[in-house]
Design goal:
single chain; about 325 residues; alpha+beta; 4-stranded antiparallel beta sheet; 12 helices; about 40% helix; binds flavin mononucleotide; Nitroreductase
Length: about 325
């Protein structure tokens, strides 16, 4: 039988399309025998908003899910585990093996079309069958998702969202970290291949010195609160992702779950974007847990969804920039 080569770099090229907090792309990839490893890039952490690196490992989980989906297209089944050694930072291992029974997962087709869409949504409900499809988009041990579409639920969530946003925008260190990852012009965003290009946030291109002035003098806790109230009013629903345990294994699984949710939403023509503030601010997260009776769960991502036009797509660094070893082709 003819042996078939595995194009690992191609698989990784889908991994890098994954979402990540502030588009830091905190990943490095290596290729080891029949495995792709995803290492955390600890030079790209977000110490203020993500002090325990949970969002970092969620992002690595998103990248792993993309690789699993891409592998399904070339007849490989993949299994994700985490490294056991305590001598180095925990990394993800994706083992890939030929599987004659595997069929391409249809979510693969939406990897390049998915985006975080941060504009204002239309006042339009999501039909029940599509809500059900979102709820059924993943099945991962220890991870659950609650959806909220009723105005009474919005009344519970809105004050927590605003409180989280207020805490963050009153914290100079948070704003400084955020602005560091802003890319105020297309040329800067494209050249660096990372960060938050302002056009993806609904802001115009501008020279970075003007952008810094705008952020410093015109964006405040009050202006953000006002903006959020408007966005929440136009949202069709929220999805809250909850981990049973607050550890790396569950963060990675939650990332995989969120990625499948995002791709399913994309398939259904539903926009989504993060409203994570109540999950990111520890005291507000505690309130969220008690108001929604989530104990002993850990709510780690809050996502709004609805209908809207697409926005410009964010940039990525190339596979070359994130691959730390190159390997001869493996034949299977
Ligand atoms: C764990 C995680 C946390 C994120 N947190 C936020 C957030 O708080 N606010 C936000 O607007 N986007 C957030 N994002 C979305 C990223 O900013 C986005 O994925 C990145 O800019 C790349 O853009 P894309 O998703 O359109 O490809 C988050 C993404 C991940 C994976």
């Amino acid at each position: 039988m003819m042996k078939k080569s595995i194009d690992y770099e191609k698989l990784i090229s889908y991994g890098v399309r994954a979402p990540s907090g502030h588009n830091t792309q905190p990943w490095l990839f290596s290729i080891e025998s029949d495995e792709i490893h995803i290492h955390p890039d600890l030079t790209r952490t977000l110490p203020v908003v993500d002090g325990d690196n949970h969002a970092l490992y969620i992002s690595l989980g998103c990248a792993a899910e993309n690789i699993i989906l891409a592998a399904s297209k070339v007849g490989l089944s993949g299994d994700v585990s985490i490294s056991e050694s305590h001598d180095e930072a925990t990394y993800l291992k994706i083992s890939l093996s030929p599987d004659v029974a595997i069929e391409k997962d249809e979510l693969f087709d939406f990897i390049n079309r998915r985006q975080s869409t941060r504009n204002e949504y239309l006042q339009k409900q999501v039909p029940t069958e599509d809500l059900d499809a979102l709820k059924e988009s993943f099945e991962l041990d220890g991870i659950s998702m609650l959806t909220f579409t009723e105005s009474k639920d919005f009344d519970t969530l809105q004050p927590l969202i605003i409180e989280g946003s207020n805490n963050q925008f009153k914290n100079n260190r948070f704003v400084e970290e955020l602005v560091n990852w802003f890319r105020f012009s297309k040329s800067e965003a494209e050249e660096r291949g990372d960060g938050l290009w302002t056009q993806c946030m609904g802001l115009p291109n501008m020279p970075s010195f003007i952008g810094n002035i705008v952020m410093k003098y015109f964006v405040s806790a009050n202006s953000e609160a006002k903006r959020w109230k408007k966005l929440i009013g136009a949202t069709a629903g929220f999805a809250l992702f909850i981990a049973e345990k607050h550890d790396i294994l569950h963060w990675v699984r939650l990332g995989r779950a969120f990625q499948r949710f995002g791709l399913t939403a994309t398939k259904l023509g539903i926009s989504h974007a993060h409203v994570n503030m109540p999950c990111e601010e520890p005291e507000v997260r505690q309130k969220l847990i008690s108001e929604l009776n989530l104990d002993p769960g850990f709510p780690l991502l809050l996502i709004r969804f609805g209908y809207s036009e697409k926005m410009p797509f964010s940039f990525r660094r190339s596979v070359n920039e994130v691959l730390i070893n190159r390997k001869q082709e493996t034949y299977v």
